[in-house]
C-alpha cells in the first residue's frame, strides 16, 4: 500500500531540521542533564487566573461542541484587540478561532492556494512553513532575507519570484531572527503584493513581544486589508502553547469559507479553552506584559554579554524570544557549532541552517530558561566560541 505524496513529501528526507533538538531530547531522556535553548516555549506556565477561568467554564458545562467559528464573545474580543491595536475596523465576521497559530497557517494557505500554486515565504523561516505549504499541495518558494540587511526582506528579492506566485507569508516580530519589520519594509512588501496580485499571510503571533520599534500589522497599510490574512495566537502572548488557541483575521467572505473548512477539519476549539482565552484577553496588556517580561530581561542579558566580546555577533533582538547569533568567526557552520556545543557542554541550540540558507553560519538561542541558568549557558557558549575562533 502506498501513502500519499502529500504526506510522505511533507518534509524532505523525513527530517524537519530539528535534529539537534531531537538529539538533545534523547540525551535528556537517557538521564543526561541538557540545557535547552531550543524551542519557543515559556519557562512559566499559563497564568493561574486563566486556568481558573477555564475550570469555571468547564465545570459550568462548556464541555460540548463549541460553535465552529469560535464563540461569539471570543471572536468579538479578538476583533476588539485587533481594531484597537491597528485602527482597522474589525468585527467578529472577520475572525475565525483556530486550534493555535499553526492550524491558522494551514487554513490560511488552504484558503488562497490551489494545488501546484507557488506560495512564497521568507528565509530564515519558522520551521513548519515549507511543510505547511506542501501540506496543502502548493509549492513553497523561499525568499532570502540576509543578515547584512537586518534580516528584513527586500522587494527586489521578493519580485524575483513574485510573478505567477499566489501568496506571500511573512512573520514579524520574527522567529527565528528577532527582527521586527520596519514600516519601509512592510510598505515595500505591500507594494509588491499589490503589483503582483499576491495574497499576504501575516504571521503576527509574537505581536506582544516587542523590544524595539513598533509592531505594524500590514493589514493596516492602504489597500492591504482586502488581501491580507493575519494569523494570531494566544501561545506566545499568554503562555498558552498547550491550549492550542489562535485565530485568522481576514475579509469576512474568506472567513465564511474558512468556517466551512473548519467544519470539515477541526470542528472548532474546546469551549472552555475559548472562555479561558476570552478571560485572558479581557485582562488587557497588563497580563501580556507580565508574560513577556522574562524575555525583555534576557534580551538585555544577551546584549550585555555579547558586548563584552567580539567573536559572536548578535543581530538586534527587536522582538520575540530568540537571539540569532552569527558564529562565522569560529570557522564552523551553525550545524557544526550546535552539534559541538551539545556534545561538549550539553547545551542545545538550533543551527541557523535549520531555518534556511540565509541564516547559515548562525545559531538561534531561545531565551526560554531562567535568568541565572540562561546567563551561565550564554557565557559558556561565548567562551566556547572564543576557543574555537582562537
Ligand atoms: N508562527 C511562528 C512564527 C511560531 O514561532 C509559532 C510557534 N513556535 C507558530 C506560528 C505556531 O504557534 P501556535 O500554533 O502555538 O500558535
From TrEMBL:
Its cofactor is pyridoxal 5'-phosphate. Keywords: Aminotransferase, Pyridoxal phosphate, Transferase. Residues 33-380 form the Aminotransferase class I/classII large domain. It comes from the Bacteria. It holds the Pfam family Aminotran_1_2. CDD domains: AAT_like. InterPro entries: Aminotransferase_I/II_large (IPR004839), AspAT/PAT-like (IPR050596), NHTrfase_class1_PyrdxlP-BS (IPR004838), PyrdxlP-dep_Trfase (IPR015424), PyrdxlP-dep_Trfase_major (IPR015421). PROSITE patterns: AA_TRANSFER_CLASS_1 (PS00105). It catalyses: L-aspartate + 2-oxoglutarate = oxaloacetate + L-glutamate. One of its GO terms (molecular function) is pyridoxal phosphate binding. PANTHER family: ASPARTATE AMINOTRANSFERASE. Belongs to the class-I pyridoxal-phosphate-dependent aminotransferase family. This is Aminotransferase. It comes from Octadecabacter arcticus 238.
Amino acid at each position: 500500500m502506498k501513502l500519499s505524496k502529500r504526506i510522505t513529501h511533507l518534509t524532505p528526507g523525513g527530517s524537519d531540521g530539528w535534529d539537534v533538538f531531537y538529539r538533545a531530547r534523547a540525551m535528556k531522556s537517557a538521564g543526561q542533564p541538557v540545557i535547552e535553548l531550543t524551542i519557543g516555549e515559556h519557562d512559566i506556565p499559563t497564568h493561574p487566573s486563566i486556568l481558573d477561568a477555564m475550570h469555571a467554564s468547564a465545570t459550568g458545562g462548556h464541555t460540548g461542541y463549541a460553535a465552529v467559528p469560535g464563540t461569539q464573545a471570543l471572536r468579538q474580543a479578538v476583533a476588539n484587540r485587533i481594531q484597537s491595536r491597528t485602527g482597522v475596523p474589525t468585527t467578529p465576521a472577520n475572525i475565525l478561532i483556530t486550534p493555535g497559530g499553526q492550524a491558522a497557517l494551514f487554513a490560511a494557505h488552504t484558503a488562497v492556494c490551489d494545488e501546484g500554486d507557488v506560495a512564497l515565504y521568507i528565509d530564515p523561516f519558522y520551521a513548519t512553513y515549507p511543510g505547511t505549504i506542501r501540506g496543502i499541495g502548493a509549492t513553497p518558494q523561499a525568499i532570502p532575507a540576509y543578515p547584512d540587511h537586518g534580516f528584513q526582506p527586500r522587494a527586489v528579492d521578493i519580485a524575483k519570484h513574485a510573478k505567477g506566485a499566489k501568496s506571500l507569508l511573512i512573520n514579524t516580530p520574527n522567529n527565528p531572527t528577532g527582527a521586527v519589520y520596519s514600516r519601509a519594509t512592510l510598505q515595500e512588501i505591500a507594494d509588491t503584493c499589490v503589483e503582483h496580485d499576491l495574497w499576504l499571510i501575516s504571521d503576527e503571533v509574537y505581536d506582544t513581544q516587542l523590544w524595539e520599534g513598533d509592531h505594524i500589522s500590514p493589514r493596516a497599510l492602504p489597500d492591504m486589508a482586502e488581501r491580507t490574512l493575519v494569523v494570531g495566537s494566544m501561545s506566545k502572548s499568554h503562555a498558552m502553547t498547550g491550549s492550542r488557541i489562535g485565530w485568522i483575521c481576514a475579509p469576512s467572505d474568506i472567513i465564511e469559507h474558512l468556517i466551512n473548512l473548519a467544519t470539515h477539519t477541526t470542528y472548532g476549539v474546546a469551549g472552555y479553552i475559548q472562555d479561558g482565552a476570552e478571560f485572558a484577553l479581557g485582562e488587557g496588556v497588563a497580563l501580556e506584559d507580565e508574560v513577556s517580561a522574562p524575555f525583555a530581561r534576557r534580551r538585555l542579558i544577551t546584549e550585555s554579554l555579547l558586548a563584552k566580546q567580539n567573536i559572536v555577533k548578535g543581530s538586534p533582538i527587536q522582538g520575540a524570544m530568540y537571539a540569532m547569533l552569527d558564529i562565522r568567526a569560529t570557522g564552523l557552520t551553525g550545524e557544526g557549532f550546535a552539534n559541538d556545543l551539545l556534545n561538549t557542554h550539553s547545551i542545545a541550540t538550533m543551527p541557523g541552517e535549520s531555518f534556511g540558507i540565509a541564516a547559515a553560519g548562525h545559531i538561534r538561542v531561545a531565551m526560554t530558561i531562567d535568568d541565572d541558568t540562561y546567563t551561565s549557558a550564554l557565557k559558556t557558549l561565548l567562551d566556547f566560541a572564543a576557543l574555537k575562533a582562537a
